[in-house]
Structures are given as C-alpha cells and as structure tokens.
Amino acid sequence: MALGTGYSAQNCSIARALEIVGERWTVLVLRDCFYGVRRFSDLLAHLDISRAVLTDRLSSLVEAGLLVRHAEGGHPEYVLTEAGIAFWPSIFALGRWGDRFGTANPPSRIYTHADCRGDLDDRGVCLSCGAFPGPEDIDASPGPGADNRRTDAVSAALRQRHRLLTPVMSG
C-alpha cells in the first residue's frame, strides 16, 4: 500500500503536529536543542545525521516557529522559541515511554528539579516538592543506561549535570 504524502486531509490536532515534528530526526533535533546544543556543527556531530537532512530539519523548525536562527559571531545558533519550549512535555513523555517500553536498558538520562534536586516522576512532577517544573528549571544527568562510548565534544559535555536550555559549549 502506498503511503500518503501528508496529513492535510485530517482534521486532527495530532495530524497537524505531525506535519511539523513528524519527520525522521526532527524530535531528536529538538531534544538536543533542549540539552543546549545550538550550533549546526555540534548538532551534526552529536546526532550523526547527514548535513542535508539536518539543514532541512532546522529550516522546517525555523519556518514552523519552533526555533529561531541567530547568526551573530560567525557561528549560527538555533534557539528554541516559546512554541519550541512548549514541546518539552512531549519530549519528556517520549523519553519516559522509550525508557519503559522501547528498551530493556535502564534510563540513559535522569531529570531532576533544579530547585530542590528532586527526581521527576513519569509525568514530570517533582517527587520532592510536587512542582511541575518547566525545562528551564530541570537538570539533566547521565542515567545508569548512559552510553559513554561517544567521543564528540557535545557527548562529553552532556556527561555532566546540565541545566536544560543552557548552551553547551563544545569548543
């Protein structure tokens, strides 16, 4: 059976969202932006994605209003917009679902509420204080299932506790 070319005939919020984030690699690009990866070269190295595909995904995310491109300093950076930041609960939920059903390995990343260092439950609620922190108030750390074999600078930087949305400087 041939696949359709889009969801335009669907009167559905999920279909409209998939038009924006449903392409392969798009959610991983957004994930890395939450981790603070902003430069094209860093995204390219960390994701092991082709230059053409990354260019296409970044252009689509900028056009859709989830990212904005800043070109100051000779190294363009991609920064999440309000719409992009609002995608955090989906990223978090997909990660938790993948931890639970997508692998037999323990979680590769642990998220904690930065204010009190409490772990987040499967809904993103802090187990210590009951807050529902936004990504700007969440720290990410390698979990027990983290793969430390990668040698790129971004992977090395992400082996430390890191506040989401804070730029990762790779060089």
Automatic annotation (TrEMBL):
<dbReference type="InterPro" id="IPR036390">
    <property type="entry name" value="WH_DNA-bd_sf"/>
</dbReference>
<protein>
    <submittedName>
        <fullName>HxlR family transcriptional regulator</fullName>
    </submittedName>
</protein>
<dbReference type="InterPro" id="IPR011991">
    <property type="entry name" value="ArsR-like_HTH"/>
</dbReference>
<dbReference type="InterPro" id="IPR036388">
    <property type="entry name" value="WH-like_DNA-bd_sf"/>
</dbReference>
<dbReference type="InterPro" id="IPR002577">
    <property type="entry name" value="HTH_HxlR"/>
</dbReference>
<keyword id="KW-0805">Transcription regulation</keyword>
<keyword id="KW-0804">Transcription</keyword>
<keyword id="KW-0238">DNA-binding</keyword>
<dbReference type="GO" id="GO:0003677">
    <property type="term" value="F:DNA binding"/>
</dbReference>
<dbReference type="Pfam" id="PF01638">
    <property type="entry name" value="HxlR"/>
</dbReference>
<feature type="domain" description="HTH hxlR-type">
    <location>
        <begin position="12"/>
        <end position="106"/>
    </location>
</feature>
